[in-house]
Amino acid sequence: MVARRVVNNAIQAHWPTARGLSLVGLGYCTPYLGLFREDAERSIAFMPARQGVIHWPTARPSKAALVEEDRLPLADAAVDRVLIVHSLEVADDVQAVLGEVWRVLAAGGRVLAVVPNRRGLWAQRDTTPFGQGRPYSSSQLTELMRESSFTPVAWSQALWVPPVTKSLVLGSASAWEKVGSALSLPFAGVHLVEATKQVYRPAPVRRERAIQIFKPALRPSPAVRQGLG
Length: 229
What we know:
By secondary structure, the protein is α/β, with parallel strands linked by helices. The chain is built from 7 helices and 7 strands. The protein has a 7-stranded mixed beta sheet, sandwiched between helices.
């Protein structure tokens, strides 16, 4: 609950509202999509097959679906924003996942990824929500986004509170976040990177292919040679 509250605050600092926008959550995003459920024009939770799917929202008609994360059931340029949580660190093919996110985002659309920090304490504990899969450094995330035709526009970190269950530590979570953010301490639990879709992807470099050129051999045929003899 503490981690959820802290990450929610960090997400809302990037996206205070989604009024009038269509939004998709990819991964295990249901604890955070509630921020935008009321004001977004449309919000859907896509949960990868390996994780399973849960009913969301709990007391309303479901807006969650089980999907293949590299084959999203949406048309091209169908949504305005994509929130990614608990997805990139466990994906089999991260480039394929981001390629699908790029495809379904409209021109000027934005993606916000919440990813475990490789240097953070939360990534070192298997019992925490962010202790699974492959954590990332900020430079790795930057390179990953750029290789997938996204332009990073904003960065932040969150979850400086240690992953312990002592009530004294959990009760002081707000203080941990304020101090960690003010001092830019390196052990935050998660990175948050917001990026925009590059409308024009760089053209792939074509390799030159060797072409065999046939030159005529200017030699007389055997019949001609016999006639000349």
